[in-house]
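Dear support,

We are seeing what looks like truncated structure output for some complexes. This example has three components. We would appreciate it if you could run it in full and send us the complete token output so we can diff it against ours.
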Amino acid sequence: MADSMFVSILSAAVSSGTPVLYAALGELVCERSGVLNLGVEGMMLVGAVSGFLTAVRTGSLAAGVLAAIIAGGCMGLIHAFMTITLRVNQVVSGLALTLFGTGLSGYLGKSVIGVPLSATFHQVPIPGLSSIPVIGTVLFKHDLLVYLTYIVVPFLWFYLYRTRPGLHLRSVGESPETADALGVNVFSIRYASAVAGGMLAGLGGAYLSLAYAPSWLENMTAGRGWIAVALVIFAVWDPFRAMLGAYLFGGIDALGFRMQVMGSGVSSFFLKMMPYVFTIVVLIIVTATAARRSSRAPEALGTPYERE
Amino acid sequence: MNALKLVFEKREAVSPAYKFISPLLAIVMSLVLGAIFLLASGFSPLKVYYYMWWGAFSDWYGISETLVTSIPIMLCALGVALAAKMLLWNVGAEGQFHMGACAAAWVALSMPGAPAWQVLPLMVLAGMAAGALWALLPAVPRAYLGVNEIITTLLLNYVAIYWVEYLVHGPWRDPVSLNFPLSAPFSDAARLPFLFGTRIHWGLVFALAAAALIWFVLGRTKWGYEVTVIGENPRAARYAGMNIERNIVLSMCIAGALAGLGGMAEISAIAGRMTRQLSPGYGYSAIIVAWLGKLNPWAVALVSVLFGGLLVGGYSAQVIGVTAASVNMLQGLMLFCVLATEALGRYRVRIVREVARAGKEVGVDG
Amino acid sequence: MGTVDYAVEMRDITKRFPGVIANDRVNLAVRKGSIHALLGENGAGKSTLMNVLTGLLRPDSGEIRVRGAKAALRSPAVAIALGIGMVHQHFRLVQTFTVAENITLGMPRPRFRLDMAPIEQEVARFSAEYSLAVNPRAKIWQLSVGEQQRVEIIKMLYRGVDVLIMDEPTAVLTPQEVRELFETLRRMTADGKTIIFITHKLDEVMEISDRVTVLRAGRNVFSCDTRDTNPRELASKMVGREIGRAPQRPSVAIGGPVLELHELAALGDRGITVLNGIDLDVRAGEIHGIAGVAGNGQRELAEVITGLRRAASGRVCICGKDMTNSAPRSIIEAGVSHIPEDRLGMGLAPNLDITLNAIMKRYRSGEMSRGPVMDEARARGWTGDLVERFSVKTPNLRTAVRLLSGGNSQRLLLARETSCVHKLAVAVHPTRGLDIGATEAVRSILLKERESGVGTLLISEDLEELIALCDRISVIYEGRIMGTVGRDQLDLEEIGMMMAGMATAAKGDERSEASV
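Here is the complete output from our reference environment:
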């Protein structure tokens, strides 16, 4: 019994970690190009609401996911325009994006609060793999959007470290002057990364509203966008570590939820605090030890690029 | 090749006239953008804006409600601005506000029979102390380990809000509240007095005093000088022997104390008991207000009143079916417009006819 | 000379920036296969001209011909495609990338999948061909400055560059490395490549170049074959007047030690040991110079002494008192002034006005305040006095420091640092980037300090400057003091050897009391 509960918590950790993982991967790409986007929370919310609205109106999940990706991309584009073209402070622009996205999503979603979704993402156990004991249930009895991360994470790693566009992306985040001098187009790479980051955040939002908890609630991301930003630091800008971090967060979340359901005696409000407290503690530990690590934040992160 | 091209030329200095009109320009821009959203969802923007204006500024009641709403925003924003002067992003005013309210409520609920002169000062102190402590939690790791304070202050907001939820659902729930998440009402002694026969309360005096004090401290004292230098160039400050770590902790704590005071004033004067819905996001509006006021305490106070009006106007626009969220959206738009107009002030935008001859333009793009 | 084969011709290049004309109808013609020196003071417009040639800046007017054909150099990529590349003074390298990754950066092929092995082999080939030894797999931050320069050169060769611009390439090298570099450059010209060599050092012009062009204040002032000119003529063309003699150095009684370092060690920003077993002293009334190639621990040495960096072990004694790892403020109060390397980044707050910068080390004292409240009138009065005494040229005291020229901001910094009561001055590259007039002013301030009995630790890369000013010179290499020589036994060759890390007879503790 204890064993199967353990497995179900792990499985829940994967699905609970998935929206954060998408958002963290998006932020990772964006930050690798030197653009800090603190608007992840807003981008996720806009993604979640547009995905949900579209799915309700069209009845098509695919259309919902696509809409979320596009909406997230548009949000990323706003940030790109503000910070790359206008060279506005990236922190302030990101905060503005979160505030705007929170307001916009609430505004757009008013009409669909409490509306049920006709079709939601279902579990699609992968034949063969899903029957492996423990691992099969934990990793291979999920919906398609979870499986997509199994492709996105290694692809992103390969892209960043084993391809020329990836090399150029990283160079723009480390030393845009160097990249520019060698003919790498700093502006278009940063634009593309910021938009891609928004798309992934939007997808993360859609996972929440279409698969994880199929519904729309104001502020339904509940800080997951910020946790994603913290995860990128935890992950030292590496996709696989971001995956690990997301599942760790998902585990805490799932554990709290499980304890709540079972009636552990601890107030459910304390259990709900756990993921936030956990993230803060992890962030402090990671930052305190980061100085000793060789890989650190992209050198040019947060600084707008301007030719002399 | 004869093409029109938008060209950004860097200005040497922002013109003084532009500095003055840019906030106005930003407000106009955001109203126009907001109008587009309103139109898209089937409202007449003019009607909505008229209702908002009417609700917030047309009569004495509207104005007093605007001022009442501006009090918590002002206190939070003054703190945010002070921290921002030192390049610290206190995104946690919302949480500090709630913790301040909790501590004040705790004092009020545990001294039911005490006279006002005892209980009110204690509530003020408790509220400020709790806000300061809640800001201390992220301030210390920021100062001594360099932990990103934006993320930590923000995540602590969620913790603070769940803490309030816990209190009103659990130990503090009033048995006669019919299962609503509310505490018992405070005694009259624990209610901050109103002024001028309206709902405007002593919090406004606190907020204006805080603005005056911050203005004086920043501009005229040694500590204010340190804050200025640290904000302009932390390396120079350290080189000149200033203790940056201590100043980070100090300014964050002051910011937290101000937000905590806001929470105390709100719960004591307006709510009169602990509830879940103390703030429609005052702490977040405060960030926009601080930036819109260019971190100047008097400007922040003024912009707070505008934002109070925006919220009150938003409530009255709900009469014709505009949701409260649209006000949040408008706030976000406003911040974007402020940023954009500020940035544009640094450039001279020209439309040039690009001729084949290279070297005529100074482009920003690659 | 109608038949001369020019690699590059720049005609009537004009480039304006807001408020200044950086290049005013400048001409430059570089013969193929030659080394062409571009000589000028800081701010003469050399860098602007070269940034135009490499496509980083677009000229307001003028024409560029590459191998006789008119060229529109719209971007660095276009310039490189035309075979023009530049090695900047501040290297353009991605620190966290490997050598090979830096070299392949920006290349069109392979388009997607990146296999480093063939690229590394090719890098190794170039490195062997021009004897530019460097490991293709090393990360840039692990390399010495000289090696990083080699990576920059290989990067250009790899791109098929045949006009290579070198911006002050010797500033960061030891004399021995300079010789190696010159060897490489000669090998390259023998291969038919063309070099444009930017410098303000006359002896280098005479040694390496075939032809020289002198710029002053954004204009051409002189151009001729190197063999037809001499250093004197070049100097007067460059400066626009005869250069003054080295400042007088009256003899001063040397007092007791104001700074003693014992077995001092410290870590750098990356957590690697950058100072190791430093033993050193500075006495009242002497200037003790620290020579060495940049990046050998000089900055960290100054920071440890002034309390801005923690000492890992060892002791720092100021005026006989152990002040190891004291707070910067206590060290300031113990009488240490500091002229940092990074003037605008550390020494001043560029956006604040002159007064607020001038009082930075004095605002705590009672004379500027009443209790916690500042006395603005007195602060301005005091600053006005200071600005006058040190002849800082400024419209008024409310002018932001960033609007001052380099020389004037350095004057302000020195005014502030030398006006407080102090016994030890730590000066790091105090004349770097200044024009000749400002340099002379700074040097005479340092000498005045010496006469008033202050002990000065002068960290500089400019050997000429050290020789002109110092009573003793110690050489730092990889965080160790290689040796100390007195003024009366200076031997340039020996200092050069020590700068390259070769130990000689003189060891740290062997001191020679020196006075002139």
